[in-house]
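In the design runs reported in the main text, the only information available to the sequence generator was the tokenized backbone. The following block is the verbatim input for one such run; it is reproduced so that readers can re-run the procedure and compare outputs position by position.
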């Protein structure tokens, strides 16, 4: 990590130390400068020498770095569930308990973005049952880095809103537009990119796919498709952006086949924008189908809010250990809850995104009251890992990674992985429930200043869809009530509900998606 303190401090506040790191709140890995006094954060800035953030730091980054450290709601002790009560226990007792319940058992891991690469590699060493709350893509998920987007002249974006996922990558799209790029957006909801686009269409995802697949057909009568084909053929600096949410949906294989064929015919560059997994893992859907095959589960973060009640019920017969920053929904379904270190409080490699690079950030805050998950698990399972050996398989030298801004992963291109043509499944018609992040993600609801940006969980739909469903001010979905917002910013036949709310968040609790979706591990589902 090559960023260094500046010669002239950016802050006017009194400080003792100036520390540099990379944010792991999303895949952009923006550089930051942290100013501390008496081991307490007094100020935070984006690093002006950082090539990704260029001196900026988004709301999410500020929240995850600065506010997490002082948040009074943060978990600071280990707790063990005894019957229906949680009792505080020492870290020594927690270690002994974990050894008793996990050692020589069939253990599974469920990792969210708070798990670093060390924890992932160790989990793979311990068990074949390694699950993530996103999707594993065994190919290069992007052919360009975000900062290279600004030089594209034609950009087709499908269901993409980087402001809600990989926040600072938005700036490179805005730069491209300001340089004259033609931005063409198709999405289920009106977002920042729609506002900047030359052409924008709101469509439900199944209709959008049928529309886009016409690009690959020889004959059609749609003038819009003629324009898209000519643009992709004639403008060599073309880029196709696809949302990671489509990878966590019933449309995944169809979207990938579309991307593959588009690249073969038009030689376009592409990027999958959002949280994806570049290393082998199983999905939440796989977890639900194999929940009877393991005895214990180690969870990072709050992914159990994405499970249905029947799967949570099955977990009651298993030992669940959770590493977490806050006592959230998952904590209420865990037997042992441990206060984990944030990415600022341990050496961390950011890898969960589609941009195809790893970014190393050193520990900048020494917080001994929290548990380093890797250190804890290494002691419990009496196993160790060698990151150097793991990374060498992906063409990365670990020591070079620690001193560089980023290191590109050597992954096979999309067209080499998906060689065989598979049967195209028919797309389901109907009204779709779309659940995804908005500006405030899951962790954002544990901070008053970010939660206040979006206090309440609501259902958003347009007037035509409301009439179809015969709803006015509220909608009931599988026994749960949501206040309705009628807006033209949602496509026909789409009901959008933010997924980041849950029952145990401290301010204005909402409903976790596992309560009202039949398949909560998918972002799109037909409302039946």
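Verbatim output:
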């Amino acid at each position: 990590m090559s960023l260094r303190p500046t010669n002239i401090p950016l802050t006017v506040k009194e400080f003792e130390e100036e520390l540099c790191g990379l944010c792991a709140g999303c895949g952009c890995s923006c550089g930051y400068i942290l100013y501390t006094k008496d081991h307490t954060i007094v100020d935070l800035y984006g690093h002006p020498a950082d090539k990704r953030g260029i001196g900026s730091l988004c709301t999410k980054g500020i929240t995850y770095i600065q506010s997490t450290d002082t948040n009074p709601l943060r978990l600071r002790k280990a707790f063990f569930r005894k019957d229906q009560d949680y009792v505080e226990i020492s870290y020594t007792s927690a270690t002994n308990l974990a050894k008793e319940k996990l050692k020589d058992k069939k253990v599974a891991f469920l990792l969210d973005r708070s798990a670093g690469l060390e924890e992932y590699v160790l989990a793979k060493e311990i068990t074949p049952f390694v699950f993530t709350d996103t999707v594993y893509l065994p190919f290069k998920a992007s052919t360009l880095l975000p900062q290279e987007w600004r030089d594209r002249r034609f950009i087709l974006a499908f269901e993409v809103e980087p402001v809600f996922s990989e926040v600072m990558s938005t700036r490179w799209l805005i730069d491209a537009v300001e340089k004259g790029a033609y931005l063409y957006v198709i999405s289920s909801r009106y977002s920042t990119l729609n506002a900047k686009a030359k052409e924008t269409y709101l469509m439900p995802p199944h209709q959008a796919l049928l529309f886009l697949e016409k690009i690959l057909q020889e004959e059609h009568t749609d003038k819009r498709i003629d324009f898209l084909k000519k643009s992709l053929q004639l403008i060599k600096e073309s880029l196709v952006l696809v949302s990671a949410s489509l990878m966590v949906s019933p449309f995944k294989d169809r979207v990938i086949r579309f991307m593959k064929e588009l690249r073969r015919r038009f030689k376009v560059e592409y990027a999958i924008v959002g949280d994806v997994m570049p290393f082998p893992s199983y999905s939440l859907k796989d977890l639900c189908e194999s929940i009877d095959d393991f005895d214990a589960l180690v969870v990072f973060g709050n992914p159990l809010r994405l499970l249905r009640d029947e799967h949570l019920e099955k977990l009651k017969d298993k030992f669940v250990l959770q590493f977490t920053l806050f006592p959230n929904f998952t904590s209420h379904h865990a037997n042992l809850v441990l206060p984990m270190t944030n990415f600022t409080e341990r050496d961390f490699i950011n890898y969960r995104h589609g941009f195809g690079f790893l970014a190393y950030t050193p520990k900048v805050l020494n917080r001994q009251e929290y548990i380093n998950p890797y250190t804890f698990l290494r002691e419990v399972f009496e196993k160790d890992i060698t990151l150097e050996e793991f990374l060498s398989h992906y063409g990365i030298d670990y020591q070079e990674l620690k001193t560089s801004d980023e290191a590109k992963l050597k992954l096979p291109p999309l067209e080499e992985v998906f060689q065989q043509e598979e049967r195209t499944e028919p797309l389901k018609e109907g009204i779709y429930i779309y659940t995804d992040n908005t500006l405030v993600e899951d962790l954002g609801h544990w901070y008053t200043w970010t939660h206040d940006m979006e206090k309440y969980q609501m259902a958003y739909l347009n007037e035509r869809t409301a009439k179809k469903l015969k709803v006015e001010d509220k909608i009931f979905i599988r026994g749960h009530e949501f206040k309705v917002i009628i807006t033209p910013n949602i496509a026909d036949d789409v009901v959008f509900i933010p997924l980041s709310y849950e029952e145990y968040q401290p301010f204005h609790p909402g409903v976790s998606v596992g309560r009202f979706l039949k398949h909560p591990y998918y972002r799109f589902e037909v409302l039946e």
